[in-house]
Structures are given as structure tokens and as C-alpha cells.
Design goal:
Layout: E1 88-93, H1 99-112, E2 120-124, H2 130-136, H3 140-149, E3 154-157, E4 167-173, H4 178-192, E5 193-201, H5 203-210
């Protein structure tokens, strides 16, 4: 009697994907691979900074106010000193009444350009900035502790410039105080500006003091 080869018995299907879907069944749709997250659009308004009055709507800087160095705004009338150790000097022409507003706008531009808030010191030759007046009401110790912490933009009277530590950017607001105060403060402010000195005020008073640096 001839032997009939036995066929292997298949008790159950091997696990894993099949070459073709079973009859009457639809092949599952592959899941899409997540792509990179979309880049968020530009801010519509500047975010208020803690510890001082928040800025108004963000103002786009015109090309003339942007320097060739990345991340630093440039104001009209700016020139770079020949000495590599000296800070760049920017003059923002303004009246004594409008110097504080011009300085606020300059600070906003600096922050929008990527400057750290703790790297900016603002000095007023006349009336104190409202933030400084408010913080001084809690005592000088708490006020200067914020200066030493270097976590935010710090506003001070120009008469206290000798107490202020150097910062990358110093903004001088010529909003009063007379010619003698301006002549005394600007050289000291330039010494404390590691990278950039911005002066907001009357160019007729500022240029004779800073000379060829403006």
C-alpha cells in the first residue's frame, strides 16, 4: 500500500502582518508620522515685564534703528568708537519733556532685540522714573537689593551712578538737572556701559560732553 505524505496541520495563523488583507476586510490605514511643530508667529504685543510698568504695544523698529550687529538696535546719529574696549554710543534726540518716553521706547526695542532685562540700567538726570519712585517707598535696602539681583531693568537717579554696577547697556535720560549734571553723569555712565550707551535728550547738551563718541 503506497504511503501518502502527511500535510502539516495548521492550528492557527502565525501572528504578524499578512501579505494581503483577508477577503471582505479593509486593510488598516497607516498612522501619519508627526512632523515638526509649527513655528509660532510674531508677537502681536509686548509682554509686560514684572517689577516695572508694562510697555505699550510693540513698535516695529525702522531699518535705520537696527545696527549691523545682530540683536542690537541702532538709533540715528550712531557711530562706533575706535577703541574696542569702549561701548558703542547711541544718541536719541528728544526734548527734556520727551526724553523719558524716548528711553522707554529704546528699552522696549532692546528687549525685543533679545537683550536680557537684567542687563539694562536706566539713569534719569531729572525727575525719577515712576518705577524707582514706587520701589523707593519700600526703603532703599529693598530697592538696591533689586539692583544687585540683576533680574530686571533697573531705574535709578543719575546722582546714584557711582553706586550702580556696570551692565551691558546703560540708558541715560536727560530730562533735567542742568548742564553740570549732564557733564558729570555721562562720563560715569559710559564707564558703566560694558557694550552700549544710549543717551536720550537734547543733542546740543550731549554732544559737547561725549565729543566724537556720538
Amino acid at each position: 500500500m503506497p504511503l501518502i505524505p502527511q500535510e502539516p496541520q495548521i492550528h492557527e495563523r502565525a501572528q504578524g502582518p499578512s501579505a494581503a488583507p483577508a477577503t471582505g476586510r479593509t486593510a488598516p490605514t497607516p498612522r501619519p508620522v508627526p512632523g515638526p511643530r509649527p513655528v509660532p508667529g510674531p508677537r502681536s504685543a509686548a509682554t509686560p515685564r514684572p517689577g516695572r510698568p508694562g510697555p505699550g504695544p510693540a513698535r516695529p523698529a525702522p531699518p535705520a534703528q537696527r545696527s549691523q550687529s545682530a540683536g542690537q538696535p541702532k538709533a540715528p546719529g550712531t557711530s562706533t568708537p575706535n577703541s574696542p574696549s569702549a561701548p558703542r554710543i547711541q544718541l536719541v534726540p528728544a526734548t527734556a519733556e520727551g526724553a523719558l518716553d524716548a528711553a522707554e521706547e529704546a528699552v522696549d526695542l532692546l528687549l525685543d532685540a533679545g537683550r536680557a532685562p537684567g542687563g539694562i540700567l536706566v539713569l534719569t538726570t531729572g525727575e525719577q522714573h515712576p518705577w524707582a519712585t514706587h520701589e523707593l517707598s519700600f526703603g532703599e535696602a529693598a530697592y538696591w537689593a533689586q539692583h544687585d539681583a540683576s533680574e530686571d531693568v533697573f531705574f535709578a537717579d543719575a546722582a546714584a551712578v557711582t553706586r550702580a554696577r556696570p551692565r551691558p547697556v546703560v540708558v541715560v535720560v536727560v530730562n533735567g538737572g542742568g548742564d553740570e549734571a549732564v557733564a558729570r553723569v555721562l562720563p560715569l555712565a559710559r564707564e558703566r556701559a560694558a557694550e552700549l550707551l544710549v543717551v536720550c535728550g537734547d543733542s546740543a547738551k550731549i554732544n559737547p560732553v561725549l565729543g566724537a563718541g556720538v
